[in-house]
Amino acid sequence: MRIAVDLNQCQGYAQCVYLAHQDFRLTGQEALTYEPNPDDERRLQIERAAAACPVQAIVIDRLDGADESETS
Hints:
It is a single chain. By secondary structure, the chain is α+β, with helices and mostly antiparallel strands. It is 21% helix and 22% strand. Strands 1-4 form a two-stranded antiparallel ribbon. A two-stranded antiparallel sheet has the order 2-3. It is globular and about 35 Å long.
């Protein structure tokens, strides 16, 4: 699994930090840092964190291998 956060869209509400604190952290003046390749065992927590984001700034890529071969 791979996650990406649109840091331009993120407003620092920190719902992701509350729901998946192992993978999302606020540092300094509300600057979000995150683990881009978290363990699959935390998938449910990360999906909940992405769903709770008020501005939908978190994108989850499943990396199941099915779509990886479509590069030109």
